[in-house]
Amino acid sequence: MSTVARPAGSAAHEAPPPAPPPATPTAAAPPPSVLTPQPLAATAMVGAPPPVRCENCAAPVSGRYCAACGQRREPPVHSLWHFMQVAAEDLTHADSRLWRTLAALLLKPGYLTQEFLAGHRARYLPPLRLYLVLSVVFFLYASATHNQSRLLQISVPDHGPPAAAMTPLAGERSSPLDPRPGESAQQRAERICDNARYQGPWRELVLSTGHRACVRAVVDNGRALREAFLHNVPRAMFVFLPVLAAVMMLMYWRPRRYYVEHLLLFVHNHAFAFLLLLLAALVSALLPAAAGWIDLSVALYVAWYAYRSMRVVYGQSRRLTLSKLAVLAFFYVVSGSLMLAITSIYSALTL
Fold first, then answer.
1. How far is CA 273 from the centre of its chain?
2. Which of 91, 108, 145, 178 lies closest to 280 in space, CA to CA?
3. Distance between CA atoms of 104 and 275, rounded to whole angstroms?
4. What is the rounded CA–CA span in Å between residue 180 and residue 234?
């Protein structure tokens, strides 16, 4: 057999045999502690304190207030001294919303409305709650301190119905409305209320209802009517304020604003009026000699407060704000008088 001879030097150019692929490194086996689930107590940090939970809803609490229900985190009351400390802190602490809200309401016109519209609401009392609380306190004070010009003296005889006599106070002049000799309170009321003349629609209904209300008002010297009026005025204000906000919306049509913005301004301004009148009444009771100056100061301050609050909230010029305030004041007087008249008639008819 013949063999084929290879040329010289071909061995040098022959490719070397391919190298075997590198072995893939096998991952180190994890320790058994990683693969096997361990108890929670084994993985927890040794000595870690238990999470603080809210006493009201049992949710975890990380700060001073609970994120779930809003209750403040504080230790339980153990003694009278600790209770007094907590109460004093609630009343006098610099972060108390009550005092911050009342101070801003009394001294910074339009500030609370501006803060509410800017989203800064957590630091102050809600507007509707503030209005309701101050209105209730004001009308309760007005109902408890109303002045009576006459005294009702009632004597019960041995036989027959009770007789009542209206006795003028010392220094008062007699008038046609005073009781006649031997006349009871019911007879006097019937005599005064029999002079009604009405020829309009629903004549019988109006006369009977009006006569019954008139007799009751005369018998008790108007006390029931006054109490019914003071009870119905806060309700009438809930109708009066939205009407004023609608008028304000027409005056501030450009730039366009939401209706609630105008309503919020009137809620704050009327809450201010209740607070100021209440403080003025208390000061006048303590200093009766200065009552006239106090009333004048209150009237001037209310007018300036209304002007300044419109300037702060709406940001218009002084002349334009004054002109709109004049229009608003005219509408306020007219509609307010109509509202009070309707409230008086309703209070008399519902006695």
1. 13
2. 145
3. 12
4. 38
Measure the CA angle with vertex 350, ends 344 and 351; round to 5°: 95
Please state, as a whole number, how many other Cβ atoms lie within 10 Å of the Cβ of residue 158.
4
pLDDT in tens, 93-134: 655 788 889 999 999 999 999 999 998 888 899 999 999 999
Backbone angles phi, psi at 203, to 5 degrees: -60, -50
* Residue written as token pair 């939401």: 258
- Residue 44 pLDDT > 50: no
Give the Cα separation of 320 and 317 in Å (integer): 5
Q: How confident is the model at residue 331, as a pLDDT?
A: 93
Residue 157 has pLDDT above 70, yes or no: no
CA torsion 155-159-162-165 (nearest 10°) is -50
Place of tokens 């339980």: 76
The structure tokens listed for 224 are 């029931």
Q: How far is CA 312 from the centre of its chain?
A: 21
